[in-house]
Amino acid sequence: MNWNFLANKYNQLTAKILVVTIVVVALLRVGFVEAAAPTLMLDTLDRIKISESATHSLSMTLPGAGITPANTGTLLITYTGFGSDFAGTPVVTCGTGTATAGFATNVLTLTSGATACSGTLTVTPFTGTNPGSAGSYTISVATGVGGAGIGGQFAIAIVDDDQVVVSATVESSITFNVGTQAAPGSTCTGSFAGNGGSLDLGTLTTGAITSSDVSSVNHICSRVSTNASNGVNVTVESLNASLQSVSVPADYIPSATAAMAAGTANYGLCASATRRGMDTTDPVGAMPAAVSPFIASCVEDTAAGSVGALTISPQIVWATSGPVANAYYNLVIKAAISGTIPAHNDYADTLTFVATGTF
Amino acid sequence: MKQIINNNIRRALFWSFALVFVLGAPLFTLAEQRTSTSFVISSDDISVGGGRSTTSLSASSYRFLITPDAINPDLVYDLANAPSSFWSHVRSDGGDIRVTTQDGVTQVPREVSGFDYDNQKGSLFIGTSGGTAFYIYYGNPSATEPAADSAYGKYNVWESDAKLVAHLEDTNDSTVNQNNGTSATPPTYASGKIADAGVFVPASTSYLSHGATGMPYGGSVVTVLVWMNQTYNNSQQAPVEIETGGGKTFTLSIIEQGGTYYVWTDSVANNFIVAEENMPPTGEWCLVELNYDGSYLNYYLNGVFKAQYSLGVDTAWPVSVNIGRRSYGPSYFPGQIDEVRILSRLLSSDERAAYYANQNNPATFWTTGAEASVSSSFVMEDDLGGIATGENINSASYKACAGYPCTLSIEPPSITFSLTTNQVLLGTLSVSSVATGDVIASTSTNAVSGYVTTIVSDGNFRTNIGDYIQDVADGDISIGDDEYGIGLTGTDRSFTDERSVTTSPRTIASNSVSTTGSSVTVTFGAAVSVTVPAGNYQQTATLVSTGRF
Asked: pTM for the complete prediction?
């Protein structure tokens, strides 16, 4: 028997077994490789409602050398459970280097540029449809092409509804006061709360104009508060369109838009340009403004000035363009006669004022 | 034969090692670089070590989180309320204490006052700029007290309008003005309102005379704040006096004389008389504030306005500040005085309320978290049984997962978010009230760096024709004003006043660590004036919660 031959064969077999064993054990002791995880991973969506299209803004801090090697290394961000319509041309920024973004279904692929992308990575904006059911969705981050070995996960919360509808009502409101005030003792202001009354012009003569706020003749004060978004109109409607004798209706003092003159018969109304105002509010209210033909100069407190003609149909005396608190206007009545006006002690008219808000 | 055996074995060994190095080289390399997103801790004590810097925040070993009820430029934390283990880990002189905002990174100035290691008490004053909550770091035996004028030293705790800050633990002024006190007969010190306080005894003529650097001149806006516990009320006492020269003074006086009660006098002809029931009581601590707004003296007791006095201008410059003595006489204060402030500005009502609440009861003003181990390079140096509830035991490089489930699997990332309602009905708005409605937003996440919740609107609170209610701009939705916005309640809330909901996302809640069921209540509010247009108003707000993993 060739013992040397047998020994050699035996030893060769033993050696092979020994080689394999040593190699296997060594590799097992080395263990398996784990990927390095990015940190501060977050994706901010503008909407997290189910099935909603959302705009994403992704950021993370890449570990180690980042997405390597340059030009070919890729990082895959997989939005499992999301729609397959991820798209966009986001701006990609890296702490160092560059990268470009591409989309396929619900996977964002970042490809390193000529200098590998490392450090803080941001990708924004891009869009995609949210999952169809609420819950916490895990987004995986993993190396596509490359040997750097990046791996990690983060999560996005999806909800049935991410919105709150807040509602409230501001009810319409308008308050109005109009009435006579004794002059000169009373002043028309935003606090006026009177209603109605009478305005006695006294004895009319050809030698002078009779006017409110002169020789104790009353004036009319009007006040409005409203939150009508398009403001308010204050209108006047005359019963007779003149000062008409009650006993002899054929006798009357006419009403015309004109400058008053002693000895010339006329009767009318004007809105005092200087005696108007409103409360100071936030938001600022709309200042009341007189409307033609009543905008002519009253020349307040004098037996002079111009008036607008009164008619049997409503006419706007003054108005605001928006909400206002305690807007007020001092209204003046003036009258004069000529020598041909018949003598009566019962010339009269009834004025009806209405405030109308436009909401 | 023996030689053949030896040769073969040697040859086998050679090739086996060669193969291992050829095949295993890259694996060896990667194994050395191996990091892990999570791992199981299976032993009780895991001690890691490393060199410690004498100044680096990252060298601190421990921290705990404190959250105030409100933010104020003048905040104090009573270290007696710190976790019990704090006193086992902090330096005996408190010099290693450092403070950051809630991000755990941004340091803020701090002042440690009245630190008594043996009796486990002391006060921590915090420069609060940019913080809504604060981490207290400590446990670095090599770290020493920062220089007073350093970035995080005590001078920088105090705003520029603070001209004197006297804690009455000693004779010092904590501000950069260094208006320190001197006296031939200084007070003694004993337990007071905030740590120790000065004890003033008339029979000993005890007082302090402080410098007047930077003090506002007579006629300027000035605020004097003082905690006092008077033993009795004599006829001439004054806890704080600002001498302005020429024999005149600005004297916070607490005087009863012949049935008349005074809180201020200028020792010439002006006396601020108040009703008896508004005088500071005897035998108990109270906070007295006296300010001058340029036209009036205003007197507050325990944060509540009590009386006002019209005062003309006195343009004299201050020459000194006396604590415990009124120079007229002179006469001396009987009792204890603590935490004196002289400011060259007025407090807002919110600041006043926060100042009083904080100093009157620091234990309830602050929420104190548990102690946790910290390290920039290592996970922990602690017993597992001692891991604080709710604390983040992860580091920048490692994460930990503890407990039975972790032996079975690695916890996946998770975040859930919910709203209690999707509709807030404010009803009919009125000029005589503020209408409100709530929605509660709740977040749970295991994100290592916590979460942030934002709100964004689709436009103004408006009608379909474009009329709108204005966004609140002054921090407070007031009755009768044209204002709309939100207020927040909850530990994680991002602000304490009322703010607008705009078309740009606004953070309403956040936390820097993982959390379960953190909720913030969002209160929508609206007020109208008489000129707010009538109509149906609506706004849609979108809330999003994002985890930071």
From this structure: 0.54
